[in-house]
Amino acid sequence: MTSTIKDVAALAGFSIATVSRAINAPHTVSPATLQTIRTAIDTLQFRPSPLGRQLRGERTRLVGVVVPTLSNPVFADCLQGIDELATAAGFKLILMTTEYDAARERHAIETLREQRVEGLILTVADADTHPLLDMLDRDGPHYVLMHNDTQRRPSVSVDNRRAAYDGVRLLTARGHRRVLMLAGSLAASDRARQRHLGYAQALEESGVATLPPVEVDFNAPELPDAVLAHLTAQATRPTALFCSNDLLAMVVMRGLRRAGFSIPDDLSVLGFDGIAIGELLAPPLASVATPNRDIGRHAWQRLVECIGGATIERTSLILPHVVRDGATVAPPATDLQLRKA
Amino acid sequence: MTSTIKDVAALAGFSIATVSRAINAPHTVSPATLQTIRTAIDTLQFRPSPLGRQLRGERTRLVGVVVPTLSNPVFADCLQGIDELATAAGFKLILMTTEYDAARERHAIETLREQRVEGLILTVADADTHPLLDMLDRDGPHYVLMHNDTQRRPSVSVDNRRAAYDGVRLLTARGHRRVLMLAGSLAASDRARQRHLGYAQALEESGVATLPPVEVDFNAPELPDAVLAHLTAQATRPTALFCSNDLLAMVVMRGLRRAGFSIPDDLSVLGFDGIAIGELLAPPLASVATPNRDIGRHAWQRLVECIGGATIERTSLILPHVVRDGATVAPPATDLQLRKA
DNA sequence: CTGAAAGCGCTAACAT
DNA sequence: ATGTTAGCGCTTTCAG
Fold first, then answer.
1. Residue B114's closest chain A neighbor by CA?
2. Average pLDDT over residues B118-122
């Protein structure tokens, strides 16, 4: 392993230049020489160091990936999609997580630039107002956003507004009128805003007043009592909940069940993300499913195009979402039934 | 960003050596000079390229992580644990997945070595018989295994045999006698073998015959009919299932429910891994929980010790597991109850 | 077809 | 305190 091109050259009896050519342009070397050198390479188990190449200004074959967390399968799935294609293309992935923290986003991007990555695939909290992205636009490297909902920058996502709209329409179509939206603590994110817009629009079309969204820290082990109280107060009790992500939906459902409520009999629940595990729940979780792995794949493809020198498209690629029906959603209980319960 | 140490030197009016010192050993440079150089660095937005340093034989501050997949939260959690500490220590992580494929394991390790990673953290299918690990022992870089159950190599895991034993004892303590073990398609892995040993031992102590393990592809969308039939055949019907991982447990439970069986009334189910999502299920999944994030953290710490030149300990670090009781496990139905159902 | 040499960005002797 | 220089592993002119 610790053998260098010099060792090969010495063993084969040629100059390092010839060895280099034998590796990178075999046809420019005489067959006999090629043979000798290849033998030397094999016996020494020589593998050219990417560092030398990189330093020469060659491609590093390195791509940075920046996501908020891997605890959420949404991002693990995206990463999986990227990894499939990147590995096949001979690229290496450097991974950094941010925990939705701006300082860490900044640190990750800087670190990755130092490493001379050829491109960046990232999910940030708020794409439109992100100063570092402007810097990337100017100085490179190329980047593609995942899940960020913006028109101004290269990105791959779903139409969050529309997806939320379609999801909430499922609820209103079932007869729900009092629908509450629950958002994670990342309420500041661009996609959270879009989802809320879609939610509001759907309710509006049903002539229903939009209830104020409730913010929940879905990393907390338990659903806070205050939130639980809010969800179940008799006077204003919603008949359905629209959770801005599946993990949140699961935490909320558990909290409600512990408090003695039944889903969907007492309360319908709709998630967002469509993580695979949701389908394995009992009852299966209804959710607005985003094609996470495909988002990762497409992000990779767009990045490769950019790196390849294609005209840099500032446009966002919108992938289709699917409203996945599930047994956590049912028609609302009638007042009579409610009273009985 | 394309500015180099030369640019800084030129702008500041000093040699590149002085600039290098200003960065790496500020105290060896006069305050005035330092000031000038720092200003130049700021205006040029200069950040030293790790490539030059690396080539100089300096530390790359790169660590490779190799896991089978990120679709299984077990590994995503490990990675999360590693990432926390690695980022804090100023290291960068290069991630590669293998999908349990030997060829990909090989490719990943080679690629990472080429990148001159300072260390490797990995989960392989079978650690004891892995030839590449022998090579790493000889030529470096240092590595630490996660989850692999071996005495011969540096590793961090739980005692899989004991953990499975403790889990199955939970079942026998509840009165179960016919306990079937379900294993993923990775039945060849070292930990799968250990888990089966523990399972067998627990049953033996109850004086019960060990049933042959059933292999299930838990990546399949549906539980195959043949497997379902096996699990529910009246004659040999088990009263409890021990699944070698939680994802598998969830797939199996869904299949059983669709076939009209109730859990835990008709059949108890115990998982393995203790992924966080299991606790959110209804009913919460009983599982032998492994401290995945801690496994990642400890793996990191051991790796750092090795890199730091500590005596290379070939020993495995065993972390405690926890048998997490859950409502998917109940006493077996009596024959009477069964007949009723 | 092959070799000599320069240089990528940086650090570390060795000089001054 | 600062500058000069060699060289890390490699690719790539430019000459033979």
1. A49
2. 94
CA distance to partner chain A, nearest, from residue B133 (Å): 14
Q: Is B185 in the same domain as B275?
A: yes
Together in a domain, B71 and B51: no
Structural domain total, chain A: 3
**A166 token code pair:** 């379609």
Q: Bridge partners of A198? A: none
Touching B: A residues 237-296, CB under 8 Å: 250-251, 253-254, 257, 276-277, 279-282
**Which of B51, B72, B223 is the mutation pick for testing A, counting most A CBs within 10 A?**
B51
- Its domain, for residue B139, covers 62-157+292-318
Both A107 and A146 in a single domain? yes
Alpha helices by DSSP H, chain B = 5-12, 16-24, 31-44, 50-55, 73-88, 102-114, 131-139, 160-173, 190-205, 225-232, 246-258, 292-307, 335-340
pLDDT band of residue B339 (cuts 50, 70, 90) is very low
Domain shared by B107 and B206, yes or no:
no
| Per-residue exposure over B202-233, b if at least 16 CB sit within 10 Å of its own CB, e if not | bbeebeeeebebbbbebeeeebeeebbebbbe
CATH assignment at residue A115: 3.40.50.2300
> In this structure, are strands A92-97 and B92-97 parallel, antiparallel, or unpaired?
antiparallel
Contact between the CB of B56 and strand C at under 7 Å: yes
| Percentage above 90 pLDDT, chain A | 42
User: From the CA of A299, how many Å to the nearest CA of chain B?
Assistant: 18
Q: What is the rounded CA–CA span in Å between residue A197 and residue B34?
A: 52
Q: How many interchain CB pairs under 8 A, A with B?
A: 123
Say if residue B135 is in the same domain as residue B168. Answer: no
Under 8 Å between Cβ of A54 and B51: yes
Chain B contact for A95, CB < 8 A? yes
Higher pLDDT, B260 or A121: A121
Whether residue A151 is found in the same domain as residue A298: yes
Rounded to 5°, angle at Cα A57 from A53 and A61: 65
Measured between beta carbons, which residues in chain B are less than 8 angstroms from residue A65?
A: 95
A93 touches B: beta carbon within 8 Å: yes
Question: What chain A residue is nearest to B111 in terms of C-alpha separation?
Answer: A92
Query: Helix (H, G, I), strand (E, B), or coil: what is residue B245?
Result: coil
Q: Are residues A102 and A150 in the same domain?
A: yes
Better-scored residue on pLDDT, B151 or B166: B166
C1'-nearest nucleotide to the CA of B8: C9
Is B1–A139 a contact, with Cβ atoms under 8 angstroms apart? yes
